[in-house]
Amino acid sequence: MPTYTTAPADLHLNGLTIAPGEQVLTRLVISRLPSGTVIDIPVHVFRATEPGPTVLLMAGLHGDEVNGIETIRRLIRRRMLQPQRGTILAIPILNIYGFLNFSREVPDGKDVNRSFPGNPRGSLASRVAHRFMREIMPLIDYGIDFHTGGAARANIPQIRCLLHQDAETDALAEAFGAPFTLHAGLRPGSLRETAMQEGRRIIVYETGESLRLDEEGIDLGIAGTLRVLHHLGMVPSVPPPARPSVVCMRSTWLRAKYAGLFRSLVHLGQYIEKGEVFGSVADPYGENSVRLESPVAGYIIGVNHMPVVNQGDALVHVGRTDSSPSRVDLSAPFEEKPMRPLETEEEDEEAGEEMMRDGE
């Protein structure tokens, strides 16, 4: 059974006293826009009469990552967050500024998820992080932080966390049952790193692409959240995942060796072998094209949908079930096949379509 600090009879948040069995919507005032409009963060509180853990469900740390926002909205709207034990705190959007501006960051260009634990006299991102740390972090035991791929990059539904270092974190990831579970290190200034330092356990759920709704990923996010809540003894039993999660202990971004127009020949979830063609880069004038071969074997867990790429741009994200570093991890970027005339590109397209059929 998971361990947690039993919440007191009364929960104190934003100047309110919330008793067991109550449901409250409160708003944390952060600042004002230059126009004078107040910016506040809505926080939904759902409390059972029976004591139990306090779980945070939060999205919108990056304002353009809409899939997590929609996931929590549907959970609230469908009245799925009525715990039998403990407390659920649901925050659909933390970075209101980014949400209003279709942006990952706050107006000064800083990333809230690199600004924890924050500073009440620091930058705007730092102030948002500090208010969260003061009001929310002391209350929670566990959390799910919902994210979406950014900058035209789409992620397959996946849980990210530190694996095999904490039994409870492993259990949360297993209970969620996402199609993929990725071992991911802690990033300085992130919510997940700061939560761990505070003795709280937070896992990250990633799906889809920024500013686009991923219906399958949203449905999987809802189901996984309910499984985590059931694992913690807070909601009734829910159906298990359709298939076991694929655990990737390492991942590698394959990057563009040449600039040009990128065309992906793989899809999310597909397994590729070492040496397999995963795409091509061509110049925009119809003279040359280059095939891209993967230097590693693994599952496609992320794809860049931006067709115009520069040298070094991330193209596809490969999740790997092996645990040993390879030459790709330890040395200079891999070499691709040399540029060649465009006439051969048609053959590559046919081969790519065949690979996509095999992957399905």
From TrEMBL:
Residues 320-360 are annotated as: Disordered. Coiled coil: none annotated. Keywords: Hydrolase, Metal-binding, Zinc. Residues 344-353 have a biased composition (Acidic residues). It holds the Pfam family AstE_AspA_cat. Residues 51-232 form the Succinylglutamate desuccinylase/Aspartoacylase catalytic domain. Its cofactor is Zn(2+). Residues 334-343 have a biased composition (Basic and acidic residues). PANTHER family: BLL3975 PROTEIN, SUCCINYLGLUTAMATE DESUCCINYLASE_ASPARTOACYLASE FAMILY PROTEIN. This is Succinylglutamate desuccinylase.
